[in-house]
Automatic annotation (TrEMBL):
UniProt keyword terms in alphabetical order: Coiled coil, Guanine-nucleotide releasing factor, Phosphoprotein
Source organism of the structure: Takifugu rubripes (Japanese pufferfish)
Coiled-coil segments on the chain, per record: 233-260
PROSITE patterns (alphabetical): DH_2
Region (Disordered): 838-867
UniProt lineage: Eukaryota, Metazoa, Chordata, Craniata, Vertebrata
Keyword Secreted: no
SUPFAM superfamilies tied to this protein: DBL homology domain (DH-domain), PH domain-like, WD40 repeat-like
Gene: arhgef10la
Domain DH: 63-250
Protein name from the UniProt record: Rho guanine nucleotide exchange factor 10 like
Length: 984
């Protein structure tokens, strides 16, 4: 520490050693009220200070210095806020005479603040040493890794975050019962320069790691490739994201258990209370909604707030007593929106989830019936259009153009009907709820209408209800288990859910097998809020395959519904080996000068690589999937893999070469391709990064520059007989799988350094695979999971970070209990973004029908905060203002908000006063908007993962092994579809 304070070069290393020794200031407390008084006092030390800017710096170096300055200022401000909590609030309350609060209440309010302060005091010392050397080292990422990757930091912050709700509740109760305490808080706020409240100070630790992540993202963006700080920054982002993920998960579990316990305690019915206690940890969604009762003419008769809880297999709704100190539930006010039946051998009554999302939940029955009829007609006309396209002759008024006009006309009518329904139903949730049977035993149901605070809330409820029903199916009960945790079954709410499994090829052949698949995204404006919440990602699924001596076949499925539907089959001259979707060139690509300038063409298209060396180019499904172009290799070598960049199409061939086709009129120039020879082994995998292409040949990978086609090779496996079979990229790393063995390896995209190696056989030790080791047959990264398909038909998922860091495996893996009977031939991620227009609340829906008599309850201030996107930060909490506190309300507003002193301070919804955990979905700690979406903050992403292979089987867990259930097994070509929850 002394060396670090004096600014010597070995200061950081000695600080790291001190941190690694777990010094006494971070000693854990056995109980919340038994805080140890032995802390390491931090002596005064020179603060981090950047020297004057040297001459001759590049623009990126200047920006990096400014970002470093922001880190210094941010950390100084944060540390000062922590010290203010201790010096201005904790110490005066502990030393007050007479006592304002007892020490028994003070300790849990400021739980772990001192340890967090000491953590960041040490980081501040190390930061000062690093800043002093900045002009010579320009390295900061490793400092974050050394300071925040230790388990003690997670322990301290986790305790604080989990206790935050309790601390705010104690502050609220103290304000209500101790006027002197409320006066103390008001006095402290008024005397502070920035007028920040105690809540405003105590919420800063929860916001700290998202702030760090945003700063390091900016630093990485302005750090050029090859810089010494690139890899450390990426590793730092990985560590901080892991920490944020763990904090968020622990907070989520703590909150849902607290909500469930509160509900169970408040219910006088023993059966329901016991069932709720069993449901702890399975709470999926909890929110205050408005129940609305309508008359026969559609007029609103009454509306009332309800607290609605969605568990894995139970939906509970309760009245809210707002006059009480907290939410109160009782047997008299509890409404059972559930059906109680006997389903155990002991005749014990249990509560079953039997909610049906029926036809009426989308909108008025008449409008919805008309919409159903139009959608049926459109489906029929689509089929007719596909049949018309196969006619051999020419007939008047019977051609593809006329059929497409029919489709367009029906689509316009459907769009009008959808808009009518959407305008009144973006915040209206209709549930067809089963009730108790009547005297004759016939089932009885009734309609419940709920209004959500926002369209986003309705989307979340519809999606979660849909997934809750899927989770109760046999194939998802259970669906996954953890092989590293003695086969522990994973909770259904945190796993991908198997939505369906189905045969692929309508024309079956014994030797025909699956080879590849792709997602052809189509933005469908016809999907409404509810349909988009329950359907798969919008677009079409292409599945290709074939046999050794047969023609190839492509099956096209529509994904705009909960289960894929086959819409078309294509036959090709040889077996399909690979597929590649090429989107329509963006406006930026179309304006590129020179030979790459694109002109008007067919737009998006699909490239199909065949076993005879041909590449067939098809138009998208919405353009009738017509053949547009055929590219042929003179040597007839099989096309094993296809990838594209903005201006080139790359084809990996079996003879060890890569063919490169340039763009020509939005397609590809077949006249003069470039041939790049990589070796004698087949080129099995291609991967396109920013400005280069990775190609695997044998046990080596060649990095080829796209502009000059210069190559650089490096060996990724020591055994020459082992070849690289699969490559997937995320952030700054590439995972590779091999033709032999059960290991996968992670390489850095810039330094080509080996960063991690995982043995899949060890991860799946509970699976009885026989004498053979697990062999990887497919690989995929999707939404924070690395999916590994094996030759034994098993599918394994491993958690990886989602940001721009290194996709290291950071936790325990899961094994799917739904497997193929043969190798997993492909794994495909399908994603689509919900139209932002669906999230806009129309004025039609904001009448007395909506919550609070027409008042839009959504908090606009939350929309102004940082929102999560595909690259977003993961901490999120729900807060609201405690406007019901007695006495004068606190505010963070300045003096301009009042003409006098404390007695006239006014309260507003956006202020920073004392807050409590609540059910308003105001998400205030999130990441930045995604740049490629123009900074849009209201993105809703639908995702599903599809696997293909021979047959389908269910695995069943045993004590030490996993066997198979042979009944109902089939060896047909089968694909399984896993649906993931919507992400916002």
């Amino acid at each position: 520490m002394k060396a670090a304070r004096s600014g010597t070069k070995d200061g950081l290393e000695k600080t790291k050693i001190a941190v690694m020794r777990k010094v006494s200031f971070l000693q854990r407390k056995d109980q919340m009220g038994n805080e140890k008084a032995h802390f390491l006092l931090t002596l005064k030390h020179p603060p981090p200070q950047l020297s004057s800017m040297p001459q001759g710096l590049t623009s990126q170096q200047v920006v990096r210095r400014h970002i470093l300055g922001s880190i210094i200022q941010s950390e100084r401000s944060y540390l000062e806020s922590l010290r203010r909590i201790l010096q201005e609030y904790h110490s005066p309350l502990m030393d007050a005479d007479p006592r304002i609060l007892s020490s028994r209440k003070i300790r849990p309010i400021f739980y772990r603040i001192r340890e967090i302060t000491q953590c960041h005091s040490m980081f501040h010392i190390a930061l000062a040493s690093r800043v002093a050397e900045w002009d010579t080292s320009e390295k900061i990422g490793d400092l974050f890794v050394a300071s925040f990757s230790k388990s003690m930091v997670l322990d301290v912050y986790s305790d604080y975050v989990n206790n935050f709700t309790n601390a705010m509740a104690l502050i609220k109760k103290a304000c209500m019962s101790k006027p002197a305490f409320l006066e103390f808080l008001k006095r402290k706020q008024a005397s502070s320069v920035d007028r920040i409240t105690l809540y405003g100070l105590m919420v800063k630790p929860i916001q700290r790691f998202p702030q760090f992540i945003l700063l390091l993202q900016d630093m990485l963006k302005n750090t050029p490739k090859g810089h010494v700080d690139r890899l450390p920054l990426q590793l730092a982002l990985t560590e901080l994201e892991m920490l944020a993920e763990k904090l968020n998960e622990q907070k989520r579990v703590a909150d849902q258990i607290a909500e469930t316990q509160q509900l169970a305690r408040s219910v006088s019915d023993r059966l329901l209370s016991k069932q709720l206690n069993l449901e702890q940890g399975s709470l999926i969604l909890c929110e205050t909604l408005i129940e609305t009762v309508y008359g026969e003419r559609g007029q609103v008769l009454k509306s009332k707030e309800r607290k609605v809880f969605l568990f894995e297999d139970v939906l509970v709704c309760a009245n809210i007593n707002l006059n009480a100190e907290d939410y109160v539930f009782s047997a008299q006010t509890l409404k059972y929106w559930i059906y109680v039946q006997e389903r155990s051998s002991l005749q014990t009554k249990v509560i079953c989830f039997l909610i049906s999302l029926g036809r009426n939940f989308m909108g008025p029955p008449r409008l919805y019936q008309e919409l159903q009829e139009l959608q049926h007609d459109l489906s029929v006309v689509e089929d007719v259009t596909l049949l018309v396209g196969t006619l051999q002759g020419m007939y008047q008024n019977l051609n593809t153009t006329v059929a497409q006009d029919w489709c367009l006309a029906l689509q316009r009518l459907i769009r009008i009907k959808e808009e009518q329904i959407q305008s009144a139903n973006k915040c209206r949730l209709r549930l067809q709820v089963p009730g108790r049977p009547d005297k004759s035993g016939r089932p009885v149901s009734f309609m419940v209408v709920l209004n959500t605070p926002s369209p986003l809330s309705k989307i979340s409820w519809v999606n979660r209800l849909h997934l809750a029903k899927i989770a109760l199916r046999e194939e998802n009960s259970p669906g996954w288990f953890c092989g590293e945790d003695e086969g522990k079954v994973m909770a259904r709410g945190c796993c991908p859910l198997l939505a369906s499994h189905m045969s692929v090829f309508a024309m079956k052949s014994p030797d025909r097998k699956l080879q590849a698949a792709l997602h052809n995204p189509v933005q469908c404006a016809l999907l409404g809020v509810s349909a988009a919440s329950t359907s798969l990602p919008q677009g079409y699924l292409w599945v290709g395959g074939g046999g050794d001596a047969s023609r190839g076949q492509i099956e096209i499925f529509s994904l705009n519904r909960p289960v894929p539907r086959a819409v078309k089959s294509l036959l090709v001259g040889s077996a399909v080996r690979c597929l590649e979707y090429v989107p329509e060139p963006s406006p930026n690509e179309e304006t590129v000068a020179g030979s790459h300038k694109a002109s008007s063409g067919p737009g998006a298209h699909i490239c199909v690589g065949l076993d005879d060396g041909s590449i067939v180019v098809y138009g998208s499904v919405d353009t009738a999937a017509q053949c547009l172009l055929t590219l042929r290799d003179p040597e007839g070598s099989a096309v094993l893999c296809l990838k594209h960049s903005a201006h080139h199409l790359f084809a990996a061939l079996h003879n060890g070469t890569v063919m490169v086709y340039a763009r020509s009129n939005s397609l590809w120039d077949a006249a003069s391709p470039t041939r790049v020879c990589l070796g004698s082994e087949p080129v099995r995998a291609l991967l396109v990064l920013d400005d280069s292409v990775w190609a695997s040949c044998g046990n080596s990978v060649t990095v080829m520059d796209i502009s000059s086609f210069t190559t650089q090779g490096f060996e990724v496996h020591p055994e020459p007989v082992v070849s690289v079979s699969h490559m997937v990229c995320a952030g700054g790393g590439v995972w590779m799988a091999f033709s032999e063995g059960s290991s996968i390896r992670l390489f850095h995209t810039e330094t080509l350094e080996l960063l991690q190696e995982i043995n899949i056989s060890i991860r799946s030790a509970l699976v009885n695979t026989g004498p053979k080791s697990m062999q990887v047959s497919s690989l995929l990264i999707c939404q924070g999971l690395l999916w590994v398909g094996t030759a034994q038909g098993l599918i394994i998922t491993l958690p990886v970070p989602r940001l721009e860091g290194i996709p290291k495996i950071t936790g325990k893996g899961m094994i799917s209990l739904n497997a193929h009977c043969g190798p997993v031939d492909f794994l495909l991620a399908t994603t689509s973004t919900l139209s932002p227009d669906l999230l806009k609340r129309d004025s039609v829906g904001d009448g007395p029908d909506s919550a609070c008599g027409g008042e839009d309850r959504s908090d606009n201030s939350s929309q102004e905060s940082l929102q999560q996107s595909g690259r977003g930060v993961l901490l999120q909490y729900r807060l609201r203002s405690t406007s019901g506190l007695p006495g004068r309300l606190l505010t963070a507003l300045g003096d301009e908000a009042s003409d006098s002193s404390l007695e006239s301070l006014e309260h507003s919804v956006e202020d920073g006063s004392i807050y409590e955990l609540s059910d308003d979905p105001d998400i205030w700690v999130k990441g930045r908007p995604c740049e490629r979406d123009g900074g849009r903050r209201d993105r809703v992403i639908s995702a599903a993962v599809i696997s293909g292979g021979k047959g389908f089987r269910r695995l069943k867990r045993g004590a030490t092994t996993v066997g198979t259930r042979t009944s109902g097994e089939t060896l047909d070509n089968t694909m399984m579809v896993w649906q993931l929850p919507l992400t916002v």
